[in-house]
């Protein structure tokens, strides 16, 4: 069960929306399944009208009007100079606490009685009603209006935070508390367990508006931005290189400096370069994905990457200094390609020994592989296609709170090399041979691992996630170019692979990249 929380200041407007047709006419037979004691004594479970929605809103606002209490929250905006959200000094009304509780699309509907019980248990766990409220109860209502657009059964909880004694309910850490409440309810009621919650995963901050703007089945701005950053992270061997490569990809990069100067960088934010007259939309690394926070990236780079060595790059990015013209390209001769094939084979031999039930190891591998596929998507797909979708599916498996992963192959050198080769390719280069060598071996191993994970995973959500990954990788595999006979793709490589004179020298070019070429290549998608 997934809890999605929001705050607002218009109770009547929210109630009218919940009993209305919805954005896609998906709302059917809106009615109450539970609510505070006074509310349920007046209203039944019959379908609600807009007039009744307004009446219910008035009842929910009763304590706020009685005591004259206003609940507000600070208005914030993104500060490009610091890369953080900062208060504007203004405040907005925020007495309405709104939470949807949703089941998976294939979960059987619960019915009004069970939803009513779940709603009561949830608001008590949050401290809004019942004994946990210690006499200071909130007015609240739970509305059921059919399935979501994706087909999942769900309810909406509307809570006015002004309590019966005129105080304001405590909503600190409400996301964490709601997740804990959902976990307890899942166990008590035998509901499908959301694996991501117990493993500490978090979704990207994709809003409804952003999802709608992207279109059905398309990657959102945040997802595309995360893929680019993850590709850069996978290809870079240290922090300074990461900053420089991100800027070469056409991204705006802003460091977050520790208080007191510009000597220590504690985080970062990135944005696609906006169109003329538009405002940049920034995302912090940690919001794009836990594996993309600066602390996680530093762990991945290891001791060979020192933060102080990257200060000049961070400062240049913060000041918006132009990138110097740099020669980037790949000298992919037979020797390089054969060496890469051997590196990947050795990594895959390590991964073949990984216990499929070891979720943390799989998450680590998935994150690294997502970066490789993302890098190849940036260079070979004019718009996000199968590689991008497979990268996104793998990236969602990489979101875990655990920082250190025991038993993980620590040096996935072959994966980093594969990402570096992709990022070095220039527009228009023939990358067919490199694609065959890199992607066929990578995709085969990942499909095998995800299929094995699907067989041993107990939670249905994570099992479906692994199945989606396997399907996405299958589609990638199907569209890869045929392997030249001389490559011997699919055969175990020798420890020292001899050069094959018939292997075509596919990529032996270099390209010049300046500050503007990333946009000119159409990478800002």
Automatic annotation (TrEMBL):
Q: Where is this region: Disordered?
A: 481-525
Superkingdom per UniProt? Bacteria
Q: Which InterPro entries match?
A: Endonuclease_MobA/VirD2
- According to UniProt, the name of this protein is MobA/VirD2-like nuclease domain-containing protein
- Comp. bias (Low complexity): 506-516
Residue stretches making up the MobA/VirD2-like nuclease domain? 90-191
